[in-house]
Amino acid sequence: MSESVQAVQNGTVTQTQSTSSTSALTNSSLGKDAFLQLLVTQMKYQDPLNPNTDTEFVAQLATFSQLEQMQNLTQTTTNSQAFSLVGKNVVVKNIATSGEITYKEGTVDFVSVSNGKVQLSIDGNKYNIDQLERVVDSLYLLQQGAPSIDEKINLDFDKSAPADISFEANMGTGDTVATDVAIVINGEVIATEYVTVDKNKITISKEALADLEVGSYKATIVFNDSLYTTIADKLTINVKNSEPEVA
Questions:
Q1: How far is CA 209 from each of CA 132, 216, 222, rounded to the nearest angstrom?
Q2: Which residues are paired to 14 by β-bridges?
Q3: Torsion (CA) 115, 121, 126, 132 in degrees, nearest 10
Q4: Which residues pair with 204 in a beta bridge?
C-alpha cells in the first residue's frame, strides 16, 4: 500500500493523495464512507502550525452526512416518480450520435432500476428517466380525437314549407369515433327514426320539427363515442312560419 508524501512549503503541509485515495475520489458517487475517509485523512495530515478544532471536524462530518441524505432522498424521489409512470402515456426524447433528435410516444410498461440507473420500458425499448419529455393523460388523448362541431350552426325550419334540415359534424378519430347521435330539442329527445347519420352529415327529419312553436331552439347533440361526447352550444334551430296569417 502506497503512503502519502507530504511536502512543507512556508510552514504549510502540502497534501499529496495516495493511489488508493485518488481512486476513491474519482468515484462519481461519494457516500458517507468516502467522506469519512477524507475526514480521517484531514485529521491525520492537518497543519501542525494551524490545527483544526474538534468542533470544525464535527461540523464537517455533519455536512457530509447531510449531503449523503440529500443524495439518497433525490434517488428515492426519482425512483418513486418513475414507478408512478407505469401505465401512463409518455413522450421521451432520443438524440442519435449524429445529433438528430427524435421523439417516441407510448405507454410505460414497466420501470427498471439497476445500479442507481432508472429506465422506462416503452414498446420493448428502454429509455433513461432523463430522456422523459412529458407525461400525457389518457383522457386528454381520447379527447383530442373526440367528435366535434367546428363552428356555430344556425338552421332555419319553415313550418309553412317543411323540409329536412342537415348539418356537418366531425365524428371523431381513433378510439373515439362515433357512428350515431342523439339530439335533444326543447328538453325532448328526437326519436331515432327521425335522425340519420351519413358519414359526417347529420339530418333531422321534418316530421321531428313539425310540432315546434315558432322560435329559436338550442339543440344538444350526444355522440355515441366512448366518451359520449356532448355538444350543447353549437346548433341553433330557428322555427318560423312564412305563410301569412289568415285574418
A1: 54, 12, 18
A2: 7
A3: -90
A4: 165, 195
What backbone torsions phi and psi does residue 47 show, to the nearest 5 degrees? -65, 115
pTM > 0.90: yes or no: no
Q: Cβ contacts of residue 178 below 8 Å, gap of 6+? A: 147, 171, 172, 223, 224, 225, 229
Ordered domains of the chain (ranges, CATH): 7-81 (no CATH), 84-136 (2.30.30), 144-240 (2.60.40.10)
State how far the Cα of 178 lies from the Cα of 87, in Å rounded to an integer: 26
Please report which helix (H) or strand (E) contains residue 92, including its range.
Answer: strand 89-95
**Which residue do the cell numbers 314549407 mark?**
161
Residue-wise pLDDT tens digits, 30-46: 555 666 676 677 667 66
pLDDT single digits (tens) 90-114:
999 988 888 899 989 888 999 888 8
